[in-house]
Amino acid sequence: MSRSVVPVLTVLGCLLALWYGAAVWLNAPWAYDKATRSGAEMNFPALVEDTWSQEKPKLPAPHQVGAELWKTTVLKKVTSKRSLIYHSWVTLSATLLGFVLGTGLGVALAVGIVFNRTMDMSVMPWVIASQTIPILAIAPMIIVVLNAVGISGLLPKAMISMYLSFFPVVVGMVKGLRSPDQMQLDQMRTWHASAAQTFWKLRLPASMPYFFTSLKIGMAASLVGAIVGELPTGAVAGLGARLLAGSYYGQTIQIWSALIMAAALAATLVGIIGVLQRVTLKRMGMS
Amino acid sequence: MHSVISAQNLDLTFQTNDGPVHALKDVSLDIEPGDFVSFIGPSGCGKTTFLRVMADLEQPTGGSVTVNGVSPEQARKNRAYGYVFQAAGLYPWRTIAGNIQLPLEIMGIPKAEQESRVAQVLDLVELTGFEKKFPWQLSGGMQQRASIARALSFDADILLMDEPFGALDEIVRDHLNEQLLKLWARTQKTIAFVTHSIPEAVYLSTKIVVMSPRPGRITDIIDSPLPKERPLDIRDSPEFLEVAQRVREGLRAGHLDE
User: Fold this and answer.
1) N or C: fewer beta carbons within 10 Å in chain A?
2) How many CA atoms, within 13 angstroms, populate the side-chain half-sphere of residue B110?
3) Predicted confidence (pLDDT) per residue in B211-256, tens digit
């Protein structure tokens, strides 16, 4: 554990140094602009100080983002419309619902594909084609169509999450359910096992390593889906709304803090699945 | 008394991209109850294919074969045989007891009986005390013993074994051969055993079937004169060496035909 801390901290330090440097470089034109207008002379310390503390910088400095995160998570009440926790929860609920729906759909399709030759031939190309459609194009359609039939709020966003997250689950589970080798299938045949018995006792347990890997990718995709789903709704609530509102008003600090929050959320969710994966596979003797 | 396994003029041709491959050609053989029959020959001679035909894992293209007087398919459905594959193929997520229980669960045998049968077959392969261990905690030889126990668990009269000790080292193999003979004496099962080791075939069998490739066929059937009681050092006796010599000649003759 401690051996992995040093490299991680080194990389983090390098990134922060790069970030601060880039903030000076990118925000300098605006700083010079202001100095010229007020007729003041700008030396280097003054330039650094200015570029790291602008109100609408091109690239906010890390401590500015940190301060904004602190302000909008710890100092704001969770129920407040300006609380990032509140917006994260809005996005998280859609992410989780979409993830559950997507996983369910993905597993169901995979089972169909593995057990039914017709489905194998007919469904798989559509599954792949579905992912070639840009999600940004189809997301507003889903929102609008569902709105027209009276479904709004959580579900339309979850549908977009589902649309993105079922794909890795289908692909992973098809591979996982087909992972038992010919010998293991022959063995089942010698015992005159039914297809259902082969599924429950062999194919499903054998697919577990693939399942968890798919879940990790599906979870990350689901979060992206929920954020994208929040963009066309007019930016009411959620991390996507914060991103959109931030870009409307040039609030780069707000955008970056929403981005960091989204990244932290994704890391936590994927991390939880990682822990589940480790515990389950260890108990199954498959790690 | 009729044969446990009876094959008449069996043919099996695989259609491949390089043209037809004659895996078996005009193979006829009778296996009597309680026989220990070894199939020996170079790779491609059809010995494994023949075993798979008996197990209804391959379909012959000609001739006829019966297992326990019925078709291999019916015999498979009656669970008339246990099949031991080259690899143990134990499920890593099940304990040794869980693995042995697997065919019993599939066959719908009551829970209490499952447990007594597991204990019984673990005793037969001398693995008592390893019930709760997982496969990765056992050596290769012990895993293969567990897989034999699994094939025995539902008490079929026939045991089909496809090079079960092929991947194990000489010392472990000797030990398992000895154990297998004891097990065979205790259970009175009919065993069909595929191998490519001459000493193994001669040591174990009451009947040795020598096969040769292209097309896969039987070149010699040797009824072993060795007694049923066989200590390991029987392999130094003149009778043993004589049978081994005849097997070797049979294998060589098969090659000269080409």
Assistant:
1) N
2) 3
3) 988 888 888 888 888 888 888 888 888 888 888 988 888 888 776 6
* CATH node for A84-283: 1.10.3720.10
Which of B155, B184, B210 terminates a domain? The answer is: B155
Q: Directed axis angle between helix A252-283 and helix A84-115, to 10°?
A: 40
Q: Are residues B137 and B123 in the same domain?
A: yes
Residue with tokens 């609408």: A56
Residue-level pLDDT at A262: 92
HSE-CB of B214 using CA atoms within 13 angstroms: 7
For A66, half-sphere exposure in the C-beta direction (CA atoms, 13 angstrom radius) is: 6
User: What tokens does B12 get?
Assistant: 């099996």
Best of A192, A204, A212 to disrupt the B interface (most B CBs within 10 Å) is: A192
Among chain A residues, CA nearest to B79: A191
Give the count of domains, chain B: 2
Confidence band for A244, pLDDT divided at 50, 70 and 90:
confident
Cis peptide before A62 (omega within 30 of 0): no
Q: How far apart are CA A101 and CA A154, in angstroms?
A: 13
Can you tell me the mean pLDDT for A71-88? Answer: 83
Do B66 and B53 touch, CB atoms closer than 8 A?
Answer: no
Q: Which of B76, B81, B102 sits opposite A201 (nearest CB)?
A: B102
* Whether residues B63 and B113 fall in one domain: no
DSSP secondary structure code for residue A216 in this structure: H
Question: Where does a domain end: B155, B185, B205?
Answer: B155
Task: Kindly write down the DSSP assignment for every residue of A53-76, as one continuous string.
Answer: S-SS-SS--HHHHHHHHHHHHTSS
Q: Tell me the pLDDT tens digit for each residue of A129-167.
A: 888 888 888 888 888 888 888 887 788 889 999 999 999
Residue type, B36: F
Instruction: Please give the ipTM for the structure prediction.
Output: 0.87
- Pair A179, B50: CB distance under 8 Å: no
- The type of residue at A239 is L
Which structural domain range is residue B74 located in?
5-80+158-256
Put simply, the answer to whether B89 touches A202 (Cβ < 8 Å) is no
Instruction: Give the DSSP letter of residue A232.
Output: T
- A36-79, pLDDT tens digit by residue? 888 777 788 888 888 888 888 889 999 999 998 888 888 877 77
CB spacing of A285 vs B102 below 8 angstroms? no
Is the pLDDT confidence value at B258 over 80? Answer: no
- CB contacts of B56 in chain A (<8 Å) are 189
Burial of A268 (0-12, 13-18, 19+ CB in 10 A): exposed
